[in-house]
Amino acid sequence: MDSEQTVPGDALTPIINSGSLSQAAYGVDDEVIISAIKVNKYFGDKHVLKDVDFEVRKREVVALIGPSGSGKSTLIRCLNGLEKHTSGEIYIHGQRLDPRFSVKQLSPIRRELGMVFQNFNLFPHMTVLQNVIEAPLLVRKMPKDQAVALGEKLLAKVGLEEKRDVYPNKLSGGQKQRVAIARALAMQPRARDLAYEGSTMVVVTHEMQFARDVSDRVVFISDGVIVEQGDPEEIFKQPRHERTKLFLERVLSTLP
Ligand SMILES: Nc1ncnc2c1ncn2[C@@H]1O[C@H](COP(=O)(O)OP(=O)(O)OP(=O)(O)O)[C@@H](O)[C@H]1O
Ligand SMILES: [Mg+2]
Predict the structure, then answer these.
(1) Distance (Å, whole) CA 20 – CA 197
(2) pTM attached to this predicted model
(3) Which of 21, 39, 136, 235 could cross-link with 142 by S-S, CB 3.0 to 4.6 Å?
(4) Is the C-beta atom of 65 inside 6 A of ligand 1?
């Protein structure tokens, strides 16, 4: 397993009473949290990200989709400072992410972001619910019954109510990701008004239904290029680009 993981973020603040993670429920803010400008990434002479322009606004949930090897993880890893971009500019909360930064310099920037990756670290010895309520219980000292109620609400939100007492090794990759999202949402930062804060999140997913359900915006990336992005419903119903169309036809036709 590589070093991809769920990074707890101060920007993660869900509205726990809303039934949906959608833009309508949260209200995406105008404030730009992540901004990538003409970002390129090479591994040796392999050109993996090609002039990528990418923005994420406050409280936005963005789903990155695209074929295997298209650069989704690399993009997220660059945004999070886990990988050094070769050229271009990345700003997190307006702060320039310099590829030369040390881990120590990066950590306050990374804390700002809630990013859920394809691979993340769920505790194998804890049930789904226990994974979700770990942080509220230990970090936020939330009373147990309150944490359980919050955990159940968040599991319902990501469609995993019935997996509450199951261990992670019994879950599919996509289900694990949903647990990771619920867990990220459970880490509410202190001293903020829950009713008006949402979470800012970039999710890499191979589950199209999931992308459609939880995201405010879908970004389709192919061969290191953002080919198309926009409203999930529109992208899935009416992709504008041939490559998007082909990709969606392929993945949707292989669904059980
Ligand atoms: N550390 C590395 N060194 C060399 N090449 C790499 C490295 N990491 C990724 N690559 C290459 O960069 C390309 C993009 O990889 P990346 O992991 O970003 O794809 P992805 O879209 O996340 O794919 P998947 O859907 O399979 O997870 C691939 O061709 C991959 O082989
Ligand atoms: Mg990947």
Answers:
(1) 14
(2) 0.72
(3) 136
(4) no
